[in-house]
Amino acid sequence: EVELVESGGGLVQPGGSLRLSCAASGFTFNLWYMHWVRRAPGKDLEWVSNINGGGDVTRYRDSVKGRFTISRDITKNTLYLQMNSLKPEDTAVYYCTRGGDTNYEQPRGQGTQVSVNS
User: Does position 96 have pLDDT exceeding 90, yes or no?
Assistant: First the structure.
């Protein structure tokens, strides 16, 4: 059974940092693109970033470029999102999900809440 468990969220002030983790199991992790997506209060699910199976190709939405870094550790079957210079508009529940280079599955897990405010 595919399982993706997110962690690492919290409350931070603007300009702060957080590192999200996603523990994956139940599938061959390094054969899938992995994505981070988020849902802000009252808004639709929004794609944030993805990374290929080998970990050497990454993409970001424009609003997080230069601030967020996606990475993966295939020895630990874990996906990460390092978030720096956080802004209030980054407030959302963050989910990891798997997919291809231009598509992703609907999130399966509970997500992790990120709240940015002073």
Answer: yes
